[in-house]
Design goal:
Distance between the termini: 70 Å
Strand order of the largest sheet: 1-2-3
Number of domains: 2
Order of helices and strands: EEEHHHHHH
Largest sheet: 3 strands, antiparallel
Radius of gyration: 23 Å
Number of strands: 3
Shape: elongated
Length: 168
Amino acid sequence: MYSVPSRLVGETICVRLSAEKLEVWYGQRHMETIPRLRGSDTHHIQYRHMIDWLIRKPGAFANYRYRSDLFPTSRFRMAYDALCERHTLSKAGKEYVKILQLAARENETAVDDALRVLFAWDETISVENVTAQLQSCLPVMPATQVEIAPVNRQGYDLLLRAVQEVAL
């Protein structure tokens, strides 16, 4: 099961199949390249293809069969879980779909970074807070930048003394 952009629904497309990928063509224009899936019961659904439909029917998100494909990163899944803790399932789905639409329209990486900042500051996850974080233009600390506190060596000295005393 694969998804294609919603503008291609009802149109005749050509899919060129190779060992590793599928190429979707509409007319003489290359629309998309999708990795080829192996096995049965596999699926590759892109949230960008579904977002307009989900906005019109946000209640469908909670029971969507391929819902796991609609979490671009683990942070988006964490955001949905946080919304479910605060709201009913229906309201959480509506709010999450709006965040997903923001990622599709603006920038998925920027939305992911905004969610990371909101989680780090223990802020409430909402489309308003994500939008405010995107518009704040504050530099976001890279996820790979780690600050390590200096090591307290006194603990090692105490451990060595205890080991030496036991050995005697």
